[in-house]
Amino acid sequence: MKYTQNPIRIAIADDHAIFRNGFKLMVENQSELCWLGDVENGIELLTLCEAKIPDIVFVDIKMPKMDGIEFCYALKKTNLTTRIIALSMFNEDYLIRDILTAGASGYLLKNTSKQEVLKAIITVYKGRNYYCSSAEQKLIQLLSNNQFNPNIKIKSVHLSERELTVLLLICNQLNTKAIAAKLEISTRTVETYRDILITKTNSKNIVGLVIYAIKNGIYNPHQFE
């Protein structure tokens, strides 16, 4: 029985090659799905999305260079209609809250079954959200405690180690080129991190980022006086 007229175009980002290979074998054996590729971080996945425009991408939440949460915010900056399903080995409240607030349409634990992965793909492809049963229970708790609302931004945000590093360098008045050189990344990647930080902290500009960092104890302007 065919669920869609055309195969659903799939890609994945995960920093574990063994997991990616197993996922690829599963997708390639399904006539409903079209495999576009696999990469090991969010930066590479963003490039893949811009080149091949997948319908759905799976992203590991914790990855080097650009994690799943950062990728969600970066994808929002494009005009792509690609939808995101998060993958994680963890079932922690803040991860579920942050990835869904960032724009993911689904959440699965990595030990889930092949049947649930396929169900999640079909559900998300049709424009609905899909959460594994354990994540649903966490969401119910978060909703009951007013800690998650997919339609509004939360005041307390989780910043990755790399985001915090970029934020501190911005606070220390380094420009984009200087930050890129110091971290050995491209200026485009620095700009992506800056845009992510502005979005996540609900700031309007660089000044807003600095104010956010000071108010939240991330940066102390008098530390080196």
How many individual β-strands?
Answer: 6
CATH fold-type name of the largest domain:
Rossmann fold
Low-confidence stretches: none
How would you sum up the major sheet?
6 strands, parallel
The helix/strand series, from N terminus to C terminus, equals EHEHEHEHEHEHHHHH
**Spatial order of the strands forming the largest sheet:** 2-1-3-4-5-6
Helical/strand content category: alpha/beta
Task: Determine the CATH superfamily of the largest domain.
Answer: Response regulator
The name of the CATH architecture of the largest domain is: 3-Layer(aba) Sandwich
| CA-atom Rg in angstroms | 18 Å
In DSSP terms (H or I, runs of 4 or more residues), the helix count works out at: 10
Termini separation (Å)? Answer: 69 Å
Shape: elongated
Share in helix = 40-55%
CATH domain class of the largest domain: Alpha Beta
* Average pLDDT score: 82
- Domain unit count: 2
Strand content: 5-15%
List the main descriptive attributes of the protein structure presented here.
225 residues, single chain, elongated, 2 domains, Rossmann fold, 48% helix, Arc Repressor Mutant, subunit A, alpha/beta
Strand and helix map with partners:
Blueprint lengths: L7 E6 L3 H12 L4 E7 L2 H11 L3 E5 L7 H9 L6 E6 L4 H10 L3 E4 L4 H12 L4 E2 L1 H12 L16 H11 L4 H8 L3 H14 L5 H10 L10
Parallel strand pairs: 1-2, 1-3, 3-4, 4-5, 5-6
Helix pairs in contact: 2-3, 7-10, 8-9
